[in-house]
Amino acid sequence: MNETKPGDWKWILGGIALIIVLFLGVKLSFWGLEQAIPQDHSSSVPNTSAAQSAPEGTEAPSFCIHCGKELPELFEWGQFCPYCGEQNLNR
Questions:
Q1: When comparing pLDDT for 18 and 78, which is higher?
Q2: Strand runs (DSSP E) across the chain, as ranges?
Q3: Residue 64 near residue 87 (C-beta atoms within 8 A)
Q4: From CA 83, how far away is CA 76, in angstroms rounded?
C-alpha cells in the first residue's frame, strides 16, 4: 500500500528547485531596484544647519496655538505641531 512511485521524487525535487528559483528571482529583482533607485542613507539624519530659523526678535512658542499642548524645546515658528499636525505660524 505504501508504494513509492519513481515520479514522486521528481515532483519533490522540482518543487524545491522552484522555491529556490523564485527566491533568487525575488532577490535579483530587489537588487535591480536598488541599483536603479539608489538610497541616500546619510540624508535620514536631520541636519541642524538646515533647520528653519526663527525671525529675529521673536521667541519660539512653548505651546501649540491650535491644540494647546506643550511643544519641544527646539520647536520654532512655522513648524508643524507633533500632536495635532497644524502649522504654527507667527501671529
A1: 18
A2: none
A3: no
A4: 15
The per-residue pLDDT for range 23-67, each reduced to its tens digit, is 999 999 999 999 998 777 665 555 544 444 545 556 777 888 889
- Which cell numbers hold the place of 6? 519513481
Asked if residue 83 lies in contact with residue 69, where contact means CB atoms within 8 angstroms, the answer is: yes
| Distance linking the first and last C-alpha atoms of the chain | 87
How far is C-alpha 11 from the chain's CA centre?
41
Using only C-alpha atoms, what is the Rg of the chain? 29
Q: Collapse the DSSP code of 80 into the 3-class scheme (helix H, G, I; strand E, B; otherwise coil) and give the result.
A: strand
For residues 71 and 36, give the distance between their C-alpha atoms in angstroms, rounded to a whole number. Answer: 40
Q: Please state the pTM of the whole predicted model.
A: 0.39
Give dist(CA 4, CA 47) in Å, integer.
67
